[in-house]
């Protein structure tokens, strides 16, 4: 039991270390976002968002077909994305030169949204994965500047609003560190301010968005409610995900009424959970897209089919394999993921996604790695409907 609580304390330390801080004093100058090189994605470019999104559809009987992907030629809305902690750069903060890890996360978490919106994804000097791994191993490392990530994204957002937005609706999309940065941006630049009129929705995954019990606002945001329908605009979709067979452990950080920036615990409140498979409430099947090759995420010998078969596309989608439901369990509220593979299903009986470092499972994090992937098809469909509603209201 002592080992468990030491593990929980380590996870807490890592999570806090990865969370950007509120800027108190002037730091290094923000990047110049008038320079195309400081963006991973911008409309009309052959960039990180132009990566191949072709998927293999694997049905329960093992039948496999290719599904093509088409970017929207003239979408009515924009998407502004801030990626999670992925940088393998040395030191506490990343540089502004994208590596393979930034391209990989854009391919899996964001490029698919270009089917419904113009994509914008700034590079930013995030707290690095390298610095977190150093803390995990107990080795010395350069401490990160925790105010820098937000200062960079604030500069990117203001540049976008001044030069690119031109009155268009925008969806904010983030995961983990990216969601925390966007949460602060929404609190300081959007919530209850004129820019809120441009907000189509916000997708903030892998962090705690807190709401008052019995209400859709209060806590994290004062004027931006939870989304309850796919054609509702100006709202938030947020969740942390866990296997239904492995709920958050007692004292776990994710899914609690805990503010990641201030570490404040809200009373009479809970973490928001909006199920992309059923925004109105209840369970629903997830429209997932996973990388064909999970790499280090997957256990040795993992295959998407029980009898291993060659898959020649970068993504797979598995209709009906996963179901999701929002669950409240003690102090935690989270998206519970169930794998439906029965004895006759030709596909995998399980999916990767747990946080395992050096062979050690961190149960506090649940399915943090796949928060976006498990529901990205649903989320893309939702913003398509929200975008149409927003555009109709502007006419």
From TrEMBL:
Keywords: Signal. It comes from Nitrospirillum amazonense. This is DUF3089 family protein. Residues 1-25 form the signal peptide. It comes from the Bacteria.
